C-alpha cells in the first residue's frame, strides 16, 4: 500500500544539499534508502486504511540545551525516521542528557480529505516527545517503544501547515526503559560490551491519516480454537453505542462474519480452521466496519492467524504447546541494531531480512531482546512463521527504579501489549532480564498474565544469572548459561527454557565494527570450528536436554552487534558465518525430535547397580572410585570387597533435574559421581547448585548400553580413556576428547551390582 503523497508539502529549504553521513559499516540496503520518503510502506499492517500520507523524509533539525525553547534557526536537516546518532539520518552525532532535539516540516492536506478528521501518527520516538501544529501544542508523549497519535484537525489552517517536534532523551541517565542503549561515541570504538550506541528521537515512521469523526482505533483479536472462532473487540473513538461488523476471509472468500457493539467482543466463526504454525504460517484477511444504521462510516483492513499457545503436560513433563502440540522452540537472540540506522532498519527489505535469516537457518523462534520493533517487523514474523518472545525493554542496570519510573515503565508495557496483542507470532512476554532494573517480579508477571491471558509470561529471563531474583511464577523457568547449553529443569508449575546460551565468536576480516575490538563468550579459531561447535551445541540439546525436559533455547545471537562478535551473521549482514544447510539440518532434527520423540532412556532408581565398559577388549572393566577419583578396573568374583563396593553405585533421580540421574557411592553415602575441571570424581554433596548440576547425568541411548551426558554441559559425556574417567566432548581439544573409539568409550552397560 503506497501513501497519498500528493499535497504533503515540499521538502525543507536546503534539502537538496542534504546527504547522509558515512556509516561505520555498509549493509546491502544502505544505499537503497530514498532521500525523501524512506520506508514508504504503510506502517500499521493490522489496522490499514487506503488514504494516508507519509511524512518520512527531510525535516529541518536543530539541537539545543535541554531546557531551551523552540530554536529561532534550523541549521541542519535530518532524514526522518533515522535517529540523530545514525549515519542514515545525516546527523551522526552524540546526543546526551543535556540536549534537546527539534524537528520541523510543512505539509498541506490533500483536498480529497475534506470533511474528515486528520490524525498525526508516530510509530515511535525516544523518549519525551512534544508536538506542535501551527504553533499550538497538540500533545506530549513519554515512551520510546509505543506508538502515539493526535487529532490535529482543529489546528489546521487550510493551506500550508507546520509541524514542530521536540524530543528529550536522557538515555541511561533517566529512569525510563532504555534497553541496550547507552550514551557512547557514535564512531566505532573499543569497549561497550553488551551495550550499544544510543538512539535518540524519532525512529519510526511519521504519517497523516484521514478518518471519520467516529473511527476504529484498534482491533483486539484472539483466536479460539475450541469453538473455531475469532474473538474480536473493536475499539473506536466517538462511536459509543455504534455497531461494529467484522468479516474474516481467505483468498477473497468470506468464511465468517459477526456484528456487535463497539467495545464488546464478537465471535466470528472460522469453520474448518486453517491453523497458523511456523511450518505453515497461514493468515486470514480481516475487515472491520463501523455502522450507522446500515451505512458503513469507517472501514479498516487487518489479518489474523489462528493458533493457540499454552503450557501442558506432555509425557508427564510440562511443555509449551502450540495448537495443543509440543514443538521445541529453537531461536536466537535478536537485538535489532544496524550499523547504518542503529535502531531503524534502512529499508523494509532489511527489516525482513533478519527474520528470513532465521528461517533459512532452520530456527522457528526469535527472542526480540530488550527492544520493541515497528509493527511491520511483527507482520514479517507473522507472515514468515516465527514464534516471537517479546522482551519489555529494561530500565538501566544496577539501579532500583523510582516510583515514577516504575509507573511509567508499567504504563509503557501496557501500551506495547495493546499494540501487539493481535500478532499471531507473538507467543510470550518476557517481563524482565537478568535483574536489570528489577522489582516486583511476581506481581508484574501476574499482572501481565491477567492483562493478556492469551500468551505465556516469563517473569525473569536468566533467573540463575547476574543477581536476578526469580519471581517464582509465570509459565517458564528461564536460565542463561554461557557457553552452555547447561541444565534447566522444569518444575511442577513451569516449563524449562534456556533464554540465552552460546555466544560463539568469530571475527570476519573486513566486517568488524571496530577492527580488533570484538569479543565473544568463546572465540573460535576458524569457520570450520565455529560450525562444528555450534552444531554440536544444537545436537547436544537434542540428545541430552530435550529428553531431560528442556522445551526451548535461544542462541546468542543472530548478528554481531558493534563489538559483540558472536553473531551467526556479521553486523553488516554481508556474511553468513555458518554453513546454512548444516545449521538448518541440526535445527530441523531438534524440532523433529520434539514432534516425534524417541522412547525415553530410563534407568532403575532407588537400588544399586554397576556400570560396565562396553569398548571391545575392555568389557570386563567397571566404573569405580579410588582416592576420590573415577577409574575403570577389572572386577570379577575374586575381587576384594573394597573394589566391589567402589564399583557399585546407587542410582537416584538427578540432584539438579529429576528427569536425569545421579550416582551415589555405595560405601560413601552422600557422595556422588561428579565432574570438576573435566575430571570425574567422587565428592560429597555440598548442597550448591553447581555441585548438583555437575553430579547430574542424563541418559542417552547407546549401542549395547547407555550414554551419560552432563546435565550442565549437554553434548559432553562420561568417558573412560586409559583407565581414567573424564567428561569428554566430541571434537574437543583435550587429550581425553580423542575421537578414537569415542562412542564406545562413552557407552556403559548397567549391570547387577557387585556389592548389593
TrEMBL record:
Top-level taxon of origin: Bacteria
Biased composition (Low complexity): 1-20
Domain Glycoside hydrolase family 2 immunoglobulin-like beta-sandwich: 214-307
Record keywords: Glycosidase, Hydrolase
UniProt keyword Lipid biosynthesis, yes or no: no
InterPro entries: AbfB_ABD, AbfB_ABD_sf, Beta-gal/glucu_dom_sf, Galactose-bd-like_sf, GH, GH2_Domain-Containing, Glyco_hydro_2_cat, Glyco_hydro_2_N
Keyword Hydrolase: yes
Pfam families documented for this protein: AbfB, Glyco_hydro_2, Glyco_hydro_2_C, Glyco_hydro_2_N
Start and end residues of each Glycoside hydrolase family 2 catalytic domain: 350-462
Domain Alpha-L-arabinofuranosidase B arabinose-binding: 611-750
Family statement: Belongs to the glycosyl hydrolase 2 family.
Protein name as catalogued: AbfB domain-containing protein
Top-level taxonomy: Bacteria, Bacillati, Actinomycetota, Actinomycetes, Kitasatosporales
